[in-house]
Amino acid sequence: MYLRNRTQQQTSKWLHTNFNIQRGIFLTYHFTDVLGFNKSFDTRLILEKVNKRFLRKLEKKLGFNDRTRLNRLVFIEKGKFRNHTHMMVETPIHISNVGMLKNNKESVDSNNKIVSFEVKPIREKQNGILKMII
């Protein structure tokens, strides 16, 4: 119990100092069965490529060029269950929340390795984010 509280405090401190999202979404998506249940070391590299491809498609739809990127924080979770990704992405100023959700859905639909996804809004207080991560 002590280690969990200490880990939460350290993670909270790190999030507040290094990563500040004012307007954003918390995105969770699951991979296909081949990638979802495979636990080998090479799977992590493939999942990283899938995440990178997803983010590049999303940035292209949002109108970013090669030099500017979305602010994001990505977690690949390979636990007892299915492999999946948690991602916090900042919504750009020139895009509405509805437009961001639409672009996320289009990016997920265009990727054949992602099966399902869930989106939650991020509030300004990041204590809720900490509960989602840990």
What can you see in these coordinates?
This protein is of the alpha+beta class and about 130 residues long. It has a single domain, classed as Alpha-Beta Plaits (2-Layer Sandwich), CATH 3.30.70. The protein is built from five helices and four strands, in the order αβααββαβα. The chain has helices at about 1-20, 35, 40-60, 95-110, 125-134, and strands at about 25-30, 70-75, 85-90, 115-120. It has a four-stranded antiparallel sheet, sandwiched between helices. A hairpin with a 6-residue loop joins strand 2 (about 70-75) and strand 3 (about 85-90). Helix 3 (about 40-60) packs across helix 4 (about 95-110). It is globular, with a radius of gyration of 15 Å. It starts with a helix and ends with a helix.
Kindly summarize this structure in a few lines:
By secondary structure, the chain is of the alpha+beta class. The protein has helices at residues 2-18, 33-36, 41-62, 97-109, 127-133; strands at residues 24-31, 72-77, 84-90, 114-122. The chain contains five helices and four strands, in the order αβααββαβα.
What topology emerges from the helices and strands here?
Elements: H1 2-18, E1 24-31, H2 33-36, H3 41-62, E2 72-77, E3 84-90, H4 97-109, E4 114-122, H5 127-133
Antiparallel strand pairs: 1-3, 1-4, 2-3
Q: Ends: how far apart?
A: 13 Å
Biggest sheet, in brief?
4 strands, antiparallel
> Roughly how many Å is the radius of gyration?
15 Å
Q: Determine the number of helices (DSSP H or I, runs of at least 4 residues).
A: 5
> What is the architecture at the second tier of CATH?
2-Layer Sandwich
Question: How do the strands of the widest beta sheet line up side by side?
Answer: 2-3-1-4
Shape: globular
Percent of residues in helical segments? 40-55%
User: What's the CATH class label?
Assistant: Alpha Beta
β content, as a range? 15-25%
Query: What is the number of beta strands?
Result: 4
Return the string of H and E elements.
HEHHEEHEH
Specify the structural class. alpha+beta
Given as residue ranges, the uncertain stretches (5+ residues, pLDDT < 50) are none
- Averaged pLDDT: 78
Overall number of domains: 1
